[in-house]
Design brief:
single chain; mainly alpha; two-stranded antiparallel sheet; 5 helices
């Protein structure tokens, strides 16, 4: 059984290991795209699963978690090299501990390991309110805040309380600042015209 197979970049069909590390394009059996594949031999060598770990030699890839162990598998999600101790078979794929935990959390609804998301409501309120300390900046930041509010109004974020409230306040502040600038420009034009 192959530990790993490179997939066609166009149709994701597995490519034959016999075509790896050959300086010629191999044709995908599914979509006929020409693909040039260079891979470490440990990735596609046929072997049976055992529980012993081999020490990594100078020319071998090392396990991501155990630098002294030879890499025998590759995580199907993140691509980390894994020794026999770290590779966790899940159905027909191999995962590392971190990716297995991420999948488990996704399935059970816990989101503690999710990446941080940009909070557009906070960005909009900061663009609308913070430049009031130096009011000439509002000439630029008020339209920017208005743009953020209008563009990202419907964007759903997980665990984002009071999102709509901040967006409404940012919209009101930005609109008032823009109206203030319009009156300011009109006043200056009138003074120049009458003066």
């Amino acid at each position: 059984m192959n530990r790993f197979s490179v997939k066609c970049p166009d149709c994701t069909y597995p490519l034959d290991a016999e075509g790896y590390n050959i300086p010629a394009f191999q044709s995908c059996k599914s979509c006929k795209t020409g693909v040039l594949v260079y891979a470490l031999p440990a990735l596609y060598r046929r072997t049976s699963k055992n529980t012993e770990t081999a020490a990594a030699q100078m020319e071998d890839a090392a396990c991501f978690y155990h630098a002294s162990n030879k890499a025998e598998e590759v995580c199907g999600d993140c691509g980390r090299f894994l020794c026999n101790l770290c590779s966790l078979p899940l159905d027909d794929e191999i995962l590392c501990v971190s990716c297995l935990e991420l999948r488990r959390k996704k399935e059970t609804g816990h989101h503690t390991l999710k990446p941080r998301q940009l909070r557009y409501d906070k960005l909009a309120i900061q663009l609308a309110v913070l430049p009031l300390l130096f009011w000439p900046l509002t000439f630029i930041t008020a339209p920017a805040a208005l743009f953020v509010v209008l563009k990202y109004w419907k964007r759903k974020l997980e665990f984002a309380p009071h999102r709509k409230t901040r967006m409404v306040f940012a919209f009101i502040f930005a609109l008032l600042e823009i109206i203030g600038w319009i009156f300011y420009v009109i006043t200056i034009v009138r003074v120049i015209a009458h003066g």
